[in-house]
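During the no-cost extension, the postdoctoral fellow (Dr. R.K.) reprocessed legacy sequence entries with the updated structure-token encoder. One reprocessed record is reproduced below for audit purposes.
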Amino acid sequence: MLDFMLMRYSTALRKRVLDFIAKGGSKAEAERTFGVSRRTIYNYLAAENPFAYQKPGSKGPRVLDDDELEKHVADFPDKTLVERAEHFGVSKGCISYAFAKRNITRKKRR
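Re-encoded structure tokens follow.
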């Protein structure tokens, strides 16, 4: 997926690559002929619509419920950021940002 994120190839080139393979050309030969990586070719073949560009990153905003987050912290004070992120289906950074915004600090041992 790295090629796909770093360099976006034209729709015309994608079509030529896919037509070449559909007519019986090998992926290795397409790689050499068109100068695209084999991983990119596999991404085109696996894509639902290989001609649509999907911007990398999240697909939409995630909203954490304040009450639910605070209840989770109260119920499970020893959970890590990663465990909380998995529970809510968000990134670790999202949980960290939510903690900072709500002034929730980690429990310090004495």
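Residues 84 and 95 are 7 Å apart (CA to CA). Confidence is low (pLDDT under 50) at residues 1-6. The remaining legacy entries will be reprocessed before the final report is submitted.
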